[in-house]
Write a structure and sequence with these properties.
Elements lengths: L23 H27 L3 H25 L3 H26 L3 H21 L7 H25 L13 H30 L6 H29 L1
Amino acid sequence: MSNPILNDNFLEAERVLDAQPMTVNGAINKTLILLALVLVPAAYTWSLVFQGFMDKASMLCIGGAVAGFIVALILAFTRKAANILAPLYAVCEGFFVGGISAFFEASYAGLVIQAVAATFGAMLSMLLLYKSRVIVCTDKFRAVIFTATLSIAIIYLIQIIASFFGRGIPQIFTASPIGIVFSIIVVGIAALNLIVDFDFIEQGANRMLPKEYEWYGAFGLMVTLVWLYIEMLRLLAKLRDR
C-alpha cells in the first residue's frame, strides 16, 4: 500500500548541507536496481512452480510476503538504512510476486504478461499525467488518496480476519459485477498512488534532501508498483472468469 510511506512530513525538516543531494535520476536508477532485485527471486519461485515444487514455492511466496511486509513497516517508521532495507524488501517481494504470478498463470494462461503490460502502461500514463500537470499532487489530493488507500487496507484486513472463521465480505472478491467494479476502483487508487510517489521524488530533489532518500523514494515507488501489479492480476482473473 501507499503512501504513508511517502509523505511530506519530513520534507520540511531535512536539507542536505555538506553532502550530495538527492536527484530524480538517482531515484530512477535506484528504482531500476530494485526492479532487478524483484525479478531474480521472482524468476526462481516461478520456475519452482512449473517444475512441480509447489510446497517450496508456496513457502517462499508466503515467507516473502510476510518478510517484505515487516521490512516495509520498519523502513516506513524508521526511515533509516534505506540503502539496505529497500533492496531487502525487493528481494522478499520478488519471492512473493514470482509465486503468486505462477499460480495465476497456471490457472489463466497468458494472464501474467497482460498484467505486466497493464501495470507499466498505468505507470507511464500516470507519469504523463503528472508531468503535464493534468493531475497536480496537492495536499488535498494526497489526503484523498491516503484515505482511499487506508479504506482498501481495512477492507482487506476484514476479509482476512473473516476468512479465519469461514466467512467473507460478499461479492467484492468474486467475479460478479460488483467484484469487478471493486477491483477497477482498487486498481485506480493504486495507480493514483503513483502520482504521490512521483511528487515525493521530485519534491525531495527540489528541496535537496540527502542522497540516501533516493533509496527511500525508489522503495515507495516499488511498493506501489507491486500492489498495482497484484491488483491487475486479480482484476484480469475476474474478467477471465466472466
